[in-house]
Structures are given as C-alpha cells and as structure tokens.
Amino acid sequence: MLLAEMLAEDGDAPWQIGLLLAAASAGSVASSLILGLFADRWGRRRALVACGCLMAAAGVVFALSESFLALAAAAFVGTISPSTNDNTPFSGVEQSILAQSCEPSQHTRVFTFYNVTALVAGALGGLAAALLGLQHLVSAGDAAFALYAVLAAGTVTLFFRLSPEAEARACPAPDTGTIGRQATRAPWRVPANIRRLAGLFAVDAFAGGLAVQTVLAWWFAHRYGATTAQLGLVFFAANLLPALAQLTAPLLAARRGLLAAMLVPHFASNLILACIPFAPSLGGAVALLLIRQALSKIDVPARQAFTAAVVDPEDRTAAASMTSIARSVAVSVSPLVATALLTGALAAMGAPLLLGAALAIGYDITVWRSYRSTFLGETA
C-alpha cells in the first residue's frame, strides 16, 4: 500500500516505479524457478533461510536508501511483492513441506488453514500500513520497510527451527533399491505432468486476471456510475468473503472428493461472473459479485492438495513452484487484454468478464475430463 507513495516521495518518476515493480515481479518468478528446481537438492530449510535473509536485507535497503538502482536490485532479490498473493518463492517449498508433514487425507484441511492464515495476515498488513500512515514521526514507507526487515528476520528464526523432517525424502527407484529420480534426473528437466498442470493453471489465472479488482472497479464505475465510496465498501466485502469461504473447503472435499471441491465452486463462481454484465442495476451486480467472490477462492486449498496428490512426492516442490510461476506470469498478462476490451461496445457488454468466465469454465471442463479417473489418494 505504501510502496508507490514512498517512491514518489523520493522523486522517482512513474516509469521508474513501474520498472521497479516489474523488477520485483521478475525477481519473484526467478526465485520461484530456482527454488522449485534446486531447493530439494540444496536443502529446503537452507533455501528458505537464504530467502528470508535476502528479504530482510531488502527491507533494510528500502528503509534506508533512496538510490533507485539499489532499490531495484533489492526488489529483484528480496521478494518485494506488489500483492499479497501466494505466488512467492517461499510458497512452493512451504507447500511441499506441508504435504509430506501430514497424511494425504489432511492435505485440504492443512492447506485451507495455510491460505486463510495468509489472507488474514495480508489484511492485517494493510491495516498496519494504514496506521503507519497516520503517524508523522518518520516516513510511513521507511517505517513499514523497517518492520518488514524485522518480520523477515523472524521468519529466518522460524525456518532455522524447522525439523529435519521438512527436508525432501529420497525415494527408492522401482526394482533397484537405489535412489530414484530425485538424484538421477537433471533438476531442470520438468516432468510432463507438471508442465501440463502449469499450462492448465496458467489458463485459469489468465481468466481470473481478466476480472481483477482494478478492472471490476473501472467497469462498475462506467457501467453503473458507482462512486469511490461505494466501491470501497464493495471490495472490502469482496476481499473478506473469500477468506471466510475457504474454511468450507475441507468439508466439501470430505463429502464430495478433492476434484469436486476444486472444480464445483470454481465452475459456479464463473457462471455467476458471466451473469454480472446482464444485471439491470448496481445493486444486482454487486450482489452477484459478492456471491461470485465467496465461491471463487474455495478451490485454492483443494488445488494445492490436488497438485500434491497427482505428482510424485519427490516432484512436489517443483510442481508447486512451476504452477505458481505459470499463474504469476499469466495473471500479469491478462489485465493488458482486459483493458483492450474495455473500449466502446465491448466495455458496455462487460467483455473482459464474459471472456474470463468462458476461459475459466473451459479450464474446469478440461481438468474434470483429464483427471476424473485419477486416484487422488485422499477424501478430505
């Protein structure tokens, strides 16, 4: 919340702010790729500690320096993210650790609390940023990044305390009794099933990016004349509902199975998204949006559990990281398409929302047809 304002106060031009955010996004993708390919070989705890140290160092640089080159370098290596999503260098390794730390039947429950905790923490971070903006002793941005560095040091301490059980477990190769693919396959050779998952999840992320909050806010303002105050209340509720709704994911997975928990709410949410452009009034459109938002993120813990279930245990870190990268890249491209569709008659029709819904429904159908006969090894 404070990053762009802090950079502007330092005298950076808008293009420099954009370039720094691009460097941060590129660094996150590069770090995710490196950790996904090599963390299991280097040691997961060691990799997480190294990331935490870089994060702390970046916080110190942002708190103390006004040099654009220093800030850009720190943004690239220090996991400075322009959002609070789960597509970070840490997430692939963390999800792999969680997946092997509990029984498969508990994966959805564990990933649910993992994601809800992150969403709540992100909301608290936004509140902390607002409170820092109210004090006038020091720059709010400098104070925020000093706190960022302290919290990063705290994560390093926690990563140091991880049990050795967090490390990757070597799997014997069939019929030989020797160490399997984890030791013999080159780390950059990503298995075909992971590439397929990454492609499918990229389509889903691209579809979701066509209806991101910025696009929705613009469209609601131009289609229905919504005011800034109205949009603020709408998106407060729209961001809170998914966190609460995710708590239903373990129950749904237990009753209907993992694939259904992943696809049914997602499918329903996109049917509702396709109906929003046809709402006759702002009230009706907002009601549909809130229902859509409540359903739209239930699939996240189920998707993470699904990813852990359909790949071999030794491939989980790579799978979580590669699918996260694919989603990050896809969602960064789709707003460009959305803005191109917000012109003339296409804008009035809600073209980005309709296209996003159609692509997401196509993703649901493809995943269902591809994996409906796959044994997922879990019911919750």
Can you describe this structure?
With 380 residues, the protein is mainly alpha-helical. The chain has 18 helices and no strands. It has helices at 3-9, 14-42, 44-64, 68-77, 89-100, 107-134, 140-160, 181-184, 192-209, 213-224, 228-245, 249-256, 258-275, 282-296, 299-310, 316-341, 344-349, 351-371. It is globular. It starts with a helix and ends in a 9-residue tail after the last helix.
Largest sheet: none
Strand content: under 5%
Low-confidence stretches: 173-183
What is the overall shape? globular
- N-to-C series of helices and strands: HHHHHHHHHHHHHHHHHH
Quote the distance from N terminus to C terminus.
36 Å
Please state the average pLDDT score: 83
**Class of secondary structure makeup:** mainly alpha
Q: Helix proportion of residues, in percent? A: over 70%
Radius of gyration: 21 Å
Number of strand segments: 0
Q: Tally the helices.
A: 18
Keywords, separated by commas or semicolons:
380 residues; mainly alpha; 18 helices; 75% helix; 0% strand; globular; MFS_dom; MFS_trans_sf; transmembrane
